[in-house]
Amino acid sequence: MKHFDVDVYNVCMEPTHITSIASPTLSEHKAKGSRFLGYAYPLSQADDLKPLLQKLYDEHPKAVHWCYAYRLGSDGMQFRANDDGEPSGSAGMPILRQIDSAGLSDVVVIVVRYFGGTLLGVPGLIQAYKQATVLALQDAIRVEKPILKTVSLRFSYEKMSEVMRLIKRTEAQMLHQEMEMEVSLSVAVPKSHEEAFMQQVQDWHWLQWEA
């Protein structure tokens, strides 16, 4: 049996939501004949990026670069910036900086470049990729997504109704359920309800949990 000591101050002070975008957007920026098409997408996990890139490869077979950056999650530690053959630091990082400047997460921006015949140099590339990203994000509708904490629960069948009432009351999401000798559940608890959820779990000595 595990125990959880709730730090009320930290729970209250930590953010409960992240800001993302509701739907894809598209922008276009031109610089010395080159076209920079900025595509912004909501992105929940890194594995979802590959089909988005493939879609743009198929739509723009004559483009020369497909540069991108993303930021995921609430802790800011999941991110990537890709220059796709442009000079190092001239594409991916300018895109990422604009995502961060907008205060967004769970977002990817892919900028597709068509070469116009004139070299822009690193400063020109930085400005072009930055501007394409700014334009894509400024048209995006913002949404607040709750930060979720995954908790695994194990208990006997006769306690099912009590646990389900707690899940409903705290607006937790059911992720996985197994019915064997006992009931095993995996739930995602909104950060805003984490304190209430964990205090109740702590009081139920008949329940095993892991977070």
What order do the helices and strands follow?
Answer: HEEEHEEHEHEEHEEHE
Query: How many DSSP helices?
Result: 6
What is Rg?
22 Å
Q: What is the end-to-end distance?
A: 12 Å
CATH class of the largest domain, please? Alpha Beta
Strand arrangement, major sheet: 2-3-6-4-5
What is the name of the CATH topology of the largest domain?
A: Ribosomal Protein S5, domain 2
- CATH architecture term of the largest domain: 2-Layer Sandwich
The 3D shape can be described as elongated
Tally of domains: 2
Sheet-strand content, in percent, reads 25-35%
- Determine the structural class based on helices, strands and strand pairing: alpha+beta
Helix content: 25-40%
Provide mean pLDDT, rounded.
91
Total number of beta strands = 11
Task: Pick out the low-confidence regions.
Answer: 1-12
In CATH, the homologous superfamily of the largest domain goes by the name Impact, N-terminal domain
